[in-house]
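In the design runs reported in the main text, the only information available to the sequence generator was the tokenized backbone. The following block is the verbatim input for one such run; it is reproduced so that readers can re-run the procedure and compare outputs position by position.
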């Protein structure tokens, strides 16, 4: 029985491997899931992804199952409650940014019909198929993530720097950055909208 070949960044941690095998790089077109990843990537800024992944269910409970309509209307009392929640990353700026980002997320939906239409337009609606040999050589940013970051900031979003947005693009399958030797690379490549 041969060992499954995965991207090097996830090996050795069951939670990381499950995330890698089932979610990372799979194209996401529904606004709810895109928003979930946007929140999680926001909280990841400056931290490791596994830290956020381990707290994901706590985030889900704390942030009303990532319901952006509810989050957009959070009161100061709710924000303070979140800042007391030891199950999440209690960064005041990131918690407040999540509320602001939810409000702006809705504005984009109103303008473009869906957030998905907006964000996928940056890659012409189709995943970019990269040929990553070693994950350590994958870019942290690209011209597309620079452009996306700049546009989101202009629209009032917070914690959406180019590195955060490129990680979001990787997570939601806007780019396929699985290593070419990884079993998921070809599987993801075949996925169609």
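Verbatim output:
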């Amino acid at each position: 029985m041969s060992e499954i070949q995965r991207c090097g960044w996830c090996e050795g941690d069951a939670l990381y491997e499950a995330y890698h095998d089932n979610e990372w790089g799979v194209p996401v077109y529904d606004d709810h899931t895109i928003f979930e990843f946007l929140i999680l990537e926001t909280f990841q800024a400056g931290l490791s992804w596994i830290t956020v992944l381990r707290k994901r269910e706590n985030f889900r409970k704390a942030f009303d199952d990532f319901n952006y309509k509810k989050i957009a209307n959070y009161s100061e009392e709710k924000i303070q409650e979140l800042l007391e929640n030891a199950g999440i990353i209690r960064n005041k700026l990131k918690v407040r940014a999540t509320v602001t980002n939810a409000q702006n997320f809705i504005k984009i939906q109103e303008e473009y019909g869906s957030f998905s239409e907006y964000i996928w337009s940056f890659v012409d609606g189709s995943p970019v198929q990269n040929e990553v040999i070693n994950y350590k050589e994958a870019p942290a940013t690209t011209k597309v993530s620079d452009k996306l970051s700049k546009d989101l900031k202009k629209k009032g979003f917070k914690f959406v720097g180019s590195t955060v947005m490129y990680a979001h693009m990787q997570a939601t399958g806007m780019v396929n950055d699985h290593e070419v030797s990884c079993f998921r690379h070809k599987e993801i490549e075949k996925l169609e909208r």
